[in-house]
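Sample A.
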Amino acid sequence: MIVCGVDEAGRGPIAGPVFAAAVVLDPGQPIDGLADSKRLSPARRERLAGAIRVRARAWHVASASVEEIDRLNILQASLLAMRRAVQGLAVAPDEVLVDGLHCPALSGRVRAIVDGDRLHPAISAASILAKTSRDAEMLRLHARYPHYALDRHKGYPTREHVALLERFGASEIHRRSFAPVRQRIARG
């Protein structure tokens, strides 16, 4: 049976896309240290992401844009990114295990598992790929928009980011449907 783990990264930020990853692990090439990406240091996440890309039977990372987030809402955009990740796999899974409460619309067996990124190695691997891929994208966006300090907060609504949003206004990478951005735009 081919089991795929799926997770997302970036539902809470006020800037940047939301990412999702789908991973089918290879039982013949185990990866030690898989865990929820939020519990790993950035350096450990990067090392594990490299191992996942080399040893997994299949993996794919996808995203949903800021425009899709604002048009659909963050939950639906996250599910869209998850669906894109699964559909991008080189192998078709028999079962898809998704971290959280909601499942993307997919054919076949799909199960949502609360705390799945802590319970299932394939979901942990997906969590790591989604997080490292989104972080890399936020660093690329930082090069274009250095005045928002995206390299430090990765688009999350930290005190620093909200202050910079107030100072410089919203850019095209800010999620206009999110309250801090919407409120800043309303004030002009």
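Sample B, a different protein:
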Amino acid sequence: MLQLNKFDIVHAHGSKPAFVLSVVRYFMNFNFVATVHGMKSNVQNFNNADYVIGGSQRALEGITKPSSVIYNWYQSSSHEKQSSTHAIAVGRLEKVKGFDLLIKSWSSINTPLLIVGSGKEKESLNQLINKLELTQLITIIDWVDQEELNKLYSKSSLLIISSRSEGGPRVALEALANNLPVLSTDVGHMNIILPKELLAEPDNLESLKLLLETYVKNIDQLNQSAIF
């Protein structure tokens, strides 16, 4: 396809596509742009590009090529915020998202929690919920389209991000743009959006548990209007 179309610019999203293009460009002439969405321990594939875009400033750590940050896009919702007593968490059901930590942290929380996402960790997460006897409080549903997700945002009391690592996350921007309070681990761009008291240390069960115990049941008393 590259040979047939003779593109001037080729844009790779992620490490593997960036690696492929770094090899292909030895045989073809094109400008190579790469986007890094999350924190990477090895950024060499991205440093082979002519220009690098990061989902946050943290995502660009170790990048030596010319670069800039373009924060993850988000969609506003037409659904009005409703009074609600349940929390929501959204994302791929993978270890990096920290849903196992979120579930373990929920043992002392009485608020219902809805987790929205699909992925290879779904079975193990459901087993963890059963093991901790939290089936009456925590429910996991498969990924939904954007319109349905906006409805779920409007019917939730807050969004919780428990990720171990992030380039964004986009869902935080979506939630905040739709007047939904957010509690998060200190990942991606969250520390330039939320004050430090609303952030937990990533991959730290006790830190996340303390954050949730402090704020989940008192979320209505937490004024995030300036953040919105």
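Observation for Sample B: The mean pLDDT is 90.
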